[in-house]
Amino acid sequence: MKAFTVVKGVVAPTDLANVDTDMIIPKQFLKSIKRSGFGPNLFDAMRYLDEGQPGQDVSGRPLNPEFPLNFARYKGASVLLARSNFGCGSSREHAPWALEDYGFRCVIAPSFADIFFNNCFKNGLLPIVLDAKTVDRLFQAMYAQEGYELTIDLPNQQIITPDGEKIAFEVGEFSKHCLINGLDDIGLTLQDEPAIRTFEQRWQQGAEGEAGQRHDEQHHARAEAPHLVREDELHGCVDAADRQPDEEHRDDDQRHRQVRRRHHHRDRQRDARADEAHQC
User: Could you state, in chain order, the average pLDDT of each consecutive group of 10 residues for the chain (280 residues)?
Assistant: First the structure.
């Protein structure tokens, strides 16, 4: 994941409330889980006049001339200015993937959907919540000045406008730490790689030692009392040769049961004939 410290870039607008994740990246593009290549299809249904499909070459697709990202003044934008409840709808992580792949590093809005908000931090994207009046003021300044830029200073938690105004914003300490150091969930786990390797080695050594001890105990038990049930049978480790005596015993038991059934059947027939003779 790309680290985020200080980013200065052109601001582009999404001047619409309740932009959901299907608007950010439509459902037909969710088949891929590569986390890259979604930028050309960001806001696909609004950005193009036709319906896009996965793997399609977008260079020949007709652009929507009224959509802001198609305006020359917003080319190369890295800061997205949005309205309330941005990222609502389904929880698809493809939404921050598409924003990041397009080139956005920061989204500023009065509010975000919770799952989208958290997914941003895990994918190198900084979501900033500002009050609605401040967001309105930034929209006005952006529309008034072509090439309007903002500087996002994450370590100092400040947005710096072209005239030098500093706007403070809040961010969780853990999320801030992860962004500054470029740590996603995998990166966080790999920080403990030495401890993980040590644990794995100890576990492997313990497993091998336990197996060796069990083998020694089994060997000793066979030597001391070969007529008793062996330890390997108790552990379910009996091979075909070990099972053979048990199978012979089972066969003998089965033959005995069959003989007893035949004798019982013969006795019942004899009793029935005696009853018939008596009645006569």
Answer: 96 98 96 89 97 93 97 97 97 95 98 97 97 98 97 98 98 97 89 87 81 70 58 48 53 67 68 60
DSSP secondary structure of 199-236: HHHHHHHHHHHHHHHHHHHHHHHHHH-TTSPPHHHHTT
Tell me what pLDDT residue 130 has: 98
98, 101, 105, 106 alpha-carbon torsion, rounded to 10°: -10
